[in-house]
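Researcher: Next entry in the queue.
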Amino acid sequence: MTAPAVHFRAAVLPGHEAVAGGQRPWIGRTGQGGRLRLVQGPIDLILDLKGASRAVAAAEARAVDAFDGLLETLVAELPRLRASAGPLPGGPVARAMAAAVAPFAPRFITPMAAVAGAVADHVLQAVAADDALELAAVNNGGDIALCLDGSACYRIGIADGRPGAAPLARIGIGAGDGIGGIATSGWRGRSHSLGIADAVTVLARTAAAADAAATMIANAVNLPVHPAIARQPACDLAPDSDLGSRPVTVNVGPLTPAERATALDAGADYAAVVIARGAARAVFLSLQGEVRSVVADLPAIGEGCR
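Model: Structure for this entry, 306 residues:
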């Protein structure tokens, strides 16, 4: 669901002291005068905002307001969010999570597959409320909610999470591309995966939609039975996991070219289905250095991003 964590040197804003190991919000910056960073529990947001200084300051204030109480609201709804069926959650972020996973039924998925993206979307909605920014990006541990205006361009590198590996591709996203969310999933990430993809990166209309699609497509990149693949029940690794006793991937040994092709074919085929349903715009799949891309039959992404 997410790219590898990035660590920043942060300066705490006055009145918002860091609480080591606690759940109080932590509000600071990525270095002196850097980007706004909002942290509470597992949520770690970094905001990249461009525009007039007054517009940026106002947007940051709205982001802090939107962040306040967000984790507590989600925690209260966790029993419903961890269930694959049942009463719909009530809060706006929880409802967005449920909506993002709905297109993948009847395959197993819970709203938790979209939590990081939905949180990023929620804060972005507050940030971009007055349309005064040229660019707004809310990065939640690698899942990114994005809003661009005019000629603004947002550039990303497609990586597979392997230590020391260079980006597999670089993409520029323009304001007219219809991309509002970017998310990555795979067995190397901080969330568990049923598949063996090193990484699956999805570009979609929202970050919640991208998050859910990345999770499901990464699950589909798979070789169900193989001696080089080690799996453990999710509940043994995280007792409260929404995956229960389902076996999640903990290691993938060397695979032959034919085996990699088989697994990537399965993921690419499912990615094509997801794109055809409108749940994603572009998908990039990687496994042990091999890459596939599946892109919607629309104008090229970044065509106007120079």
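Model: The chain is about 30% helix and 25% strand.
Researcher: Noted, moving on.
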